[in-house]
Amino acid sequence: MRPNSLAEVVGQKHILKPGSPLIALATPVEQGTKVSAASVILWGPPGTGKTTLAQVVARSSGRRFVELSAITAGVKEVREVLDRARNDKDLYGVSTVLFLDEIHRFSKAQQDALLPGVEAGVVVLIAATTENPSFSVISPLLSRSLMLTLESLTDQDVQALLERAVGDSRGLANAVSANAEVIAQIVRLSLGDARRALTILESAAISAISRPKVPAKKTSSKSSKDAPVPAIEFADLEAAADRALIRYDKDGDQHYDIISAFIKSVRGSDADAAIHYLARMIEGGEDPRFIARRLMILAAEDVGLADPHALPLAVAAAETVAMIGMPEGRIPLAEATIYLALAPKSNTAYNAINSALADVRNGIVGQVPNALKSSNFAKAQDQGAGVGYEYPHDSPRAVLPQRYLDEKVLSRRYYIAKDVGHERELGERWSKLREIVRSFKTK
């Protein structure tokens, strides 16, 4: 099912725009003398089309295509390819595309062997890697190549690939059928990996075709050609993936029910229940960024000041998931989930801002005291702005009696500390500070 042209490639539209390096590289050599010969490094997760793009570029441009894997090839094989490419270019005017998979597995010395050929334009190097080239590829090679980042395929991309594979003569050629629910389940199992999706589809199709057929009633009006083709069922997918399938609708009730159960389990300090629901969301194909966002909200709303480390940890988990993707992203999500479930809980910050907002919306605002008003303008003191303000740092304790609120809201209490976790200390401190601050004498 590999595409025969760039037009058949699904996904990666951000690097396949008109005028992009790959489009230029795929331009047929005979169409003009000035044809791109820039080497490129394709960086992205497995199953996003790195090998496919290399093959299509070589085929479209009319160049000779040679594929090496850094797992099995060494300096000897690289030099053989460069020698052959040099002869083909000098004798026949044929350019060579060298596709090197897993380039990050090459040592520095092995990568050095590529430099002469790349620098002289003997080969057009298309290197693929799942690791950050900035750390895994030597600087001289990086400076002579364009780095293109491939993204995980969207659900719509994978769905399009699967539907094409079911009907295409290069694929299953309609030997089986697959309804929308089956296709959607394969999409969830694939996690944006096209190769994985097609492998599951192929295995499930074999299972469906091998299933014992129920004898059909003999009728004279129907020929054997009209016999229905086997349909892929969920049992075939379970056999193909060797796992029980989770019925999880990311846009339906299950999405809301399970995330609700997840949040309530963390809030209720049941780490096992929280991890269970996290696993169901991950296995069901829920967007990990959505889960991470909800954990950040929970850290601020439900753990809050009882453990000030909770929110930074949740943010770090979200950033990690965004950087490394899935399936490795399940680990920081689990770490944050367990930490938040076991952390002391306090919603005082949540309550404080909601109470203050309610007062503001109800018109309980008052005037800003003159001492707190900005005095950075001409004749400010004439208007009383800033007059009487006392600088807290002038006090040995860095706090002193001073009016910060108008009489209308002076008695309102928004932050009411809980006697839990770190907030126990904050509550004691706030009680002492409030007593000092509010001890000012009304003039």
At a glance:
The chain has 18 helices and 5 strands. It has 443 residues and is of the alpha/beta class.
Assembly context of the chains: single chain
Q: Mean pLDDT, nearest integer?
A: 85
Number of domain units? 4
Detail the poorly predicted runs: none
CATH second-level architecture of the largest domain: 3-Layer(aba) Sandwich
Largest sheet strand order: 2-3-4-1-5
Major β-sheet annotation: 5 strands, parallel
Q: Indicate the structural class.
A: alpha/beta
CATH topology of the largest domain: Rossmann fold
Number of strands: 5
Helix content: 40-55%
Q: Considering the protein shown, what is the CATH homologous superfamily of the largest domain? A: P-loop containing nucleotide triphosphate hydrolases
Strand content: 5-15%
Query: Termini separation (Å)?
Result: 84 Å
**Rg to the nearest angstrom?**
32 Å
Principal-axis shape: elongated
The ordered H/E elements are: HEHEHEHHEHHEHHHHHHHHHHH
Number of helices: 18
CATH class of the largest domain: Alpha Beta
Descriptors:
single chain, 443 residues, alpha/beta, Rossmann fold, Helicase, Ruva Protein, domain 3, Zinc Finger, Delta Prime, domain 3, 4 domains, 18 helices
